[in-house]
Task: inverse folding
């Protein structure tokens, strides 16, 4: 595969120049911007922008809110810039994740700056995470590969670097998900992020309502500073006895562990008076899974003494496709059983 302009210039993984280019593509002043913007609106399933409206596209829109400086990557205002009828906020991520409550802060800051504007859309555009647990669920998460329909119209080839943009940010990402190496299973830590990303993508594709409830969680090892990746789901985070708790699935080749812990994580030995609450739920979870008989689970191993890991499940499969298929079935089964267990404690999530 030949290198394209982004790779040659050394900016392929840098957000600022990519955001600059996207803002240019959306700008009506380039002659094709309004059409490109409206096709983008169609792709992300938000209303189009009328042709007879004033439109301003701004890069790095700064807002000071609650003493914190917020910098919105791309802000599109429809109508008078100081009193818009509509705003479209785009947060662009290239190989990075959300900052501390970043999307939540952006929603609050825009509410404060434009209190009379009720027509708002928030887009979280990313290259590296098939689904993310954003602090604000007002944001619509869109992966770069989902922008494929934007490039159907040959007229857009007139836009600078469009062919290179499509090649690097859309086509390569799409091919990675549509054509996995059928007989290759990633077994080392370097490939694990990509495997989790693909698992989450497949799980969300199975959802009939079009929502993306599963996401890639990232954490640090309790014994080292190593990063690891997990499969989690929005409704696996809950509160019990005024304590935030969470489940997630953490994998190595051939098996996957169900973890149950505080969120954010506090070592079990340091929970203090809340230790009784956590241990009560931990025992209930173990007891529940001891009784579980379902096709998705093979060779269930309960972890009676582990602080974090409740159980490990064997994942059969000699090829990538087989492994992914069985893992998706397993996660669906675990999801069902977690909810059953929580219902026993009348925990509504």
Result:
């Amino acid at each position: 595969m030949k290198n394209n302009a982004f790779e040659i210039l050394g900016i392929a993984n840098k957000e600022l120049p990519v955001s600059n280019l996207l803002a240019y593509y959306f700008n009506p002043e380039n002659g094709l911007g309004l059409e490109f913007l409206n096709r983008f609106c169609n792709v992300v399933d938000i209303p189009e922008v009328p042709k007879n409206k004033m439109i301003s596209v701004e890069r790095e829109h700064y807002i000071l809110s609650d003493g914190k400086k917020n910098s919105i990557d791309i802000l599109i205002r429809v109508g008078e810039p100081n009193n818009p009828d509509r705003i479209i906020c785009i947060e662009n991520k290239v190989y990075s994740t959300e900052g501390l409550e970043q999307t939540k802060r952006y929603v609050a800051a825009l509410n404060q700056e434009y209190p009379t504007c009720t027509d708002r859309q928030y887009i979280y555009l990313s290259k590296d995470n098939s689904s993310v647990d954003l602090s604000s669920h007002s944001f619509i998460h869109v992966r770069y590969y989902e922008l494929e329909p934007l490039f159907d119209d040959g007229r857009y080839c007139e836009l600078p670097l469009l062919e290179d943009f499509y090649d690097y940010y859309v086509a390569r990402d799409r091919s990675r998900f549509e054509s996995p190496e059928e007989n290759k299973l990633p077994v080392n830590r370097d490939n694990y992020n990509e495997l989790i990303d693909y698992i989450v993508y497949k799980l969300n594709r199975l959802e009939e309502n079009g929502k993306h409830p599963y996401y890639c969680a990232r954490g640090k090892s309790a014994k080292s500073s190593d990063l690891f990746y997990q499969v989690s789901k929005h409704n696996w985070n809950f509160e019990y006895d005024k304590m935030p708790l969470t489940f997630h699935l953490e994998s190595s080749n051939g098996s996957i562990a169900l973890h149950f812990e505080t969120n954010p994580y506090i070592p079990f030995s340091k929970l203090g008076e809340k230790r009784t609450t956590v241990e009560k739920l931990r025992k209930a979870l173990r007891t529940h899974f001891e009784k579980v008989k379902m096709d998705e689970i093979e060779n269930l191993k309960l972890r009676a003494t582990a602080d974090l890991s409740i159980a490990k499940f064997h994942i059969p499969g000699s090829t990538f496709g087989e492994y992914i298929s069985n893992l998706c079935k397993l996660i669906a089964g675990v999801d069902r059983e977690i909810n059953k267990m929580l219902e026993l404690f009348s925990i509504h999530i």
